[in-house]
Amino acid sequence: MFAPFQYQELIERALQEDLGTGDVSSAIFPKTATAHAKIYAKQQGIVCGVEIGERIFKTIDGELEIKKCLDDGSTVEPGTVILEIFGSVRSILMGERTVLNFIQHLSGIASLAHQAVEEIEGLPVRITDTRKTLPGLRMLQKYAVRVGGGQNHRFGLYDGVMLKDNHIAAAGGLIQAVQAARSEVGHMVKIEVECESLSQVNEAIAAGADVIMLDNMDIGAMREAVGIIDKRAVVEASGGLSKGSLRAVAETGVDVISLGSLTHSVKALDFSLDLGDIKKATLERWQKGEL
């Protein structure tokens, strides 16, 4: 997990957005009123954001007592408690939605990444994210991908060269783009080139690209491209890939599968906070197979 100072500003912005000048709903309770709350899963998946949730509550009220029941990366099912909170009713309710928003979103990413990694189990292929992240949340979203068993692609424009179609067009060609990049960056920086055809794959090899991305290619073309490259560069498959098709892609021999869907449109994993006991209806629906 990151050090708290790396995401504290994000927590404070999120709380300011929700609380504004104060929680007028929780003002109905006296300052001395206390409660015991539990945050628990309502779906099966991989939890992520437990420490962030703890930090949010502590930012609101340093007097709250927090019991962390599970670590990030743990498997949860409906009824699994991940956090218990003891203390001021006002403080607990002030943090409820912000905590749940983070945990639900990050757990959704971790769960999806876990499913993708499971789909290619046994094959020497890495599942990575992309830069298709929500502004301001990239660090946490990429952390969630790792929690789910995936790996990170570049974090931003600063830590790796990726020459895409527009770079190639503006440079006057693929080889020209790679040559220009080589003259600008040091020997420690890798250069990746996006290729949409086998002819571009051949150009990328000739130019000495370190990583070759096969963009929106079908399975047959991917397999042929892997043969052409013949381990002279890392091979990445990307573009329109989704759960259910990943194993077939991995079996072509690519080294990396990058998925923008891990972060840009993920569905949240459902969690809830209850004061006192967990609502029985959730557990009953789970036992009946309705969740």
Structure at a glance:
With 291 residues, the protein is of the alpha/beta class. It is 41% helix and 18% strand.
The assigned structural class equals: alpha/beta
Distance between the termini: 30 Å
Strand count: 12
Gross morphology: elongated
Beta content comes to 15-25%
What is the CATH third-level topology name of the largest domain?
TIM Barrel
Calculate the mean pLDDT score and round it.
Answer: 94
Low-confidence stretches: none
Helix-strand pattern, N to C? HEEHEEEHEHEHHEHEHEHEHEH
Overall number of structural domains: 2
Radius of gyration: 23 Å
Provide the helix percentage: 40-55%
CATH architecture of the largest domain: Alpha-Beta Barrel
Task: Please give a structural write-up.
With 291 residues, the protein is an alpha/beta fold. It has 2 domains: 4-116 and 266-287, Aldehyde Oxidoreductase, domain 3; 121-264, TIM Barrel. It is built from 11 helices and 12 strands. It has helices at 8-19, 50-60, 89-119, 138-147, 165-171, 174-184, 198-207, 219-229, 246-250, 261-264, 280-287; strands spanning 34-41, 45-46, 65-68, 75-76, 81-88, 126-128, 161-163, 191-195, 211-215, 234-238, 256-258, 271-275. The strands form 3 sheets. A 6-stranded parallel β-sheet has the order 6-11-10-9-8-7. A 4-stranded antiparallel β-sheet has the order 3-5-1-12, covered by helices on one side. A two-stranded antiparallel sheet has the order 2-4. Helix 9 links the parallel strand 10 and strand 11 (256-258). The longest helix has 31 residues, at 89-119. It is elongated and about 70 Å long. The relative contact order is 0.15. The mean pLDDT is 94.
